[in-house]
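Write out this protein's structure.
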Amino acid sequence: MVEIQYTVLLKNCIILVGGLPGSGKTTFAKSLATRISARHINSDEVRAAHHLLGDYSTATKNEVYRLMLQQVENWVSESHTVVIDATFYLAQHRQEFFTLANRYRLSLFFFLIIADEETIRDRVSRKRPLTEADFAVYQRVKKAFEPLDVPYCKLDSSHTDLEQMLNVASNYLNVMPNDGLPRT
């Protein structure tokens, strides 16, 4: 098998990977970050690093997003592309990253990772590193997920293999206008 090298012509941009618990966000985000030589931030890892596991209050969720935003700002100020992996189920949290992108005049791309409920139920029933989300958490987040008001690329991880998802993502990142403006 021939290994294909990918060169995505992105420099210093922000890529959000959102979706419900168990949708496959982290698997996709880590692989995408590797493919495009970007930094990766995962909300569960941030939560763990700051000793916030087990606390899912609104204040703590906001703190996790604030910490991720701070890290993204540090990295983009050093000209890094950053892939951020979290549910992004609240419009307020998505908007904070768009505001940051606009402040630095950067492009921001959003990937919504979805999966069918049977796939989600199977994934969240297994032990996964750092995450405490089970099917009940999935259902709560699904109910609270605010409509997307930003342009995005939707990828279904239950019916598409990871390599195909990465190929679609690579194409999307190369085709979208790279002028730092949010699309509506």
